[in-house]
Amino acid sequence: MEPQLAEPPRPGSSLALLGIPFAFSQDDLLTTEKFIAQAKDRGYDVSIDLLQRLHEHRLLLPLYRVSDTPVAGRRMRVEADDGGSIRSWVVLAAAEGRLRDPADEGYSVAWPYRRPSDAPPDRWWNGFVYSSWQLFDLEHVVDEYRAIAAGWRAGPHGPRTARDRRLTLALAALAPRYLPAVLGRFRFPSGIDEDRIRLAGADADPQELLSSAGFAATDLQGAADVLLLSAQSDDPMRRWVKLLRYASYAGWSKMRGEPLDCMWRRVAAELLLRAHEDLAGKGVLEPLPDLTGSTWHAPQHDRLTPQYPEAETLERALAELGLSPHPRVILLLEGKTEQRHVPRLMAELGLNQPQQVRIQACRSSKVNAHLIARYGITPRIGRRIGDRWLLDASPTALVVAMDPENHFATAAHRAEQRRNLQRAIREEVQYQDADISQEDLDTLVSVHAWGDHKYELANFTDDELVPAIAQLALSRGAGDTTSPAWEKSLREYLQDARRLHLDIDAPLGRIKAPKDKVALADILWPVLRAKSERELATNTVTTPVLKIALEVRRLIAKVSGVFALEVPAGFNADG
Fold first, then answer.
1. How far apart are CA 28 and CA 36, in angstroms?
2. pTM of the entire structure?
3. I want to staple 318 with a disulfide (CB 3.0 to 4.6 A). Which of 79, 324, 386, 534 is the partner?
């Protein structure tokens, strides 16, 4: 004989949610102990006695009560869950006719929240089950309880309590359909085929889900906006939302207190808004407001998945918070001495963060910087608003500093290289249906040489080089560095190198000193640091490498905080 089954639960009853395929597979059902633990994680101080008093006053009703007494006429047709979780206890109780909706009954002292002294600890629990979505309600229901306890109010605000419960039911109903995509994770009850649960979520009709919860589809947007507004108001990390929306659930769920609670409010709002969008697509609801180009802050600007084109990309959000992985300046250098000195000099100027300057080494001055210019410097164009294009990433400027040879031998050569690099950037910008002014190109690309000589000879005098080379030679046992003849020869070789614009290797070879530029750079570093400090202190900067370091610092300041590109005068989008 078929067991007697209950009539289908009324819409708006928590029991009706169990008719939704795989209900509570993606969100949490919580015992009182786990509800209190999660409340503490969100910054709420709740005790088991307080939960009982909230229940007694009907301020916060558990989602379910699991009774010890089965009633044949209350048995429900549910799919078994053998996972041993709280969900499985609820499903089993529903199948056996032991599950109750506390909204349909009062509170009885026969249902204590605390374990009676004569009850075995390993075989007793109070049977109350909450939804994790009810954690939102704690702040105002606790305040309301205190007002009632103090005699300031006669009882609970019935309409708000009913509205809160409908919202809880709606979120629980929508969770199997939308929560996996919002959190980026799927959970599978034990013994359930993955394809079945994915297909059930994809096939779920949001209007039917809301009907089970007794929630009007027309209330979706309003409820979502209230959640977003409260999160914006309460969250001490509200300015980080533009970045947190890109964080994984595994990352942001480690937060505690109000920031965690506010993130869950945004998750809840996202479920409601996605349901609204699906129903709008079917013609059931009007579309959500279009925020394109809006100059005011609307609640939906704070969505976890913003639908307006001006929303910050991850790279732009990182840049606005000073965390961009893109450097403000790429400094292209060749030469072992330069690559040894320049990072240290930048650090002396306080430029030691990766998002400030990246020093890119190249093997020689024959380098072709076009790929760096095209793919590392070209601005990433976003949406146009008025006379500006928003940038999808913080801008990066390119500074090239080379010995005066090959493509960089003369000022004319360097100017040509700069024009070629700027032309490449302009082409890439135009491929994005935009354009860039010459002023902006001049900021983004600069090409320098150390002067008329190569690095060591351009930045150090003979009086500075002679003792350094002598120290290098002495360390390797190369020649009688203390003799006047040795020093005289070295000075002659250095002058010859300057006259002929040779590399430092030439005088090193002639004096038979080791051609170890790294070791020479380390010997020269204290000299460079001391002369740089003097020049900065007296505001008489003459050393070429210090000039370029200061230019890099200026560019970092100039491009920091730039998130838009001005539309050049005369720009025609149609070409």
1. 13
2. 0.73
3. 324
